[in-house]
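Please, structure for the following, as tokens.
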Amino acid sequence: MLLATRNMAIGDNNRLIDKGYELLESRLPEGWNAELSKQVEGGEAYIWITAPDHKRISIVVEAKTKLDPRQALEFARSSRAGEPRLIIASYLSPATRERLAEAGVSFLDLTGNARVVLSRPGLFIDTGGVDVDPNSVPRPSRSLRGSKAGRVVRALIDTRSPGGVRDIAAQAGVDPGYVSRVLSLLDREAVIERGGRGKITSVDWLRLLRRWAEDAPLESRGAQVTCLDPRGVSALLDRISDADSNGQPGYAVTGSFVASKFAPVSAPRLITIYVRRTDHVIKDLGLRRVDAGANVLLIEPEDDGVFSGTRQDGTVRCVALSQASADLLGSPGRGPADGEALLEWMKEHEEVWRG
């Protein structure tokens, strides 16, 4: 039974290599040739690449039915320096492809994603396929969408030493079991590093923040209403400064207004504000609901986590920089550009905003 399973795996790998080889051959520039060579006993495969001037090089080929970012890092670390290697897989996620490219490992998947780099003879192939596995079954554990996931992400980003599962659970206000599942996902994605007893030793906060913004864009934060304040944004901020209630933040400004305080690109035309009660704020501030020409976006969040870490900027309460940057990256229009500008400031002043 064990031998039969092993033979099936070898057969699957051989079919994967054959299809990948055909795909690579079709992407070679004119005048270049490829030849596949397999060593049955050792289970190894090579592809010989020949340039128009007849210079040749062999690439070690490895078939992977599954490869996540963490496995990609481990593979790159185990590779011998200077030895060209090519990963062939049915599908490679954007994060996995990014890790392989950073490590200088060539790859190709059967959806058409390919990056092959050789120095001698010089060859560069970079083509795109799809960014979603056509054969996958979506599972919630693969996403950072949702209020609980957002709380865990914020705990990891905002704190230099987040600790272990229970520390993060206490800070985020979610159960340890859920935290453990999120950390397992992030570990596979090679976004976090763990030490003894599962304690988080480092967080790639920039990569994590981008992933969070992708999985949970601004539109997923809660119910949104576009409004017009005829007196303008400045007048609105003067009035909303008194909108707190029961000792809790009644509002928090996010988006381009926050970014402009650290990395000014241009004056924000639309101010985005988290509020606890949209109807109350509209009435109290004399706003008008509009479908076009809005200068105010009110968001009634599904979860109070967006108010975590708010700070005062003069008389205006603003969300934490991690929240603001994620909101911008996951918003339409000029938001992502403002988000990138804010990220640049955050990278240069990490000691200022990370606890």
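Residues 253 and 318 are 5 Å apart (CA to CA). The longest strand covers residues 56-64.
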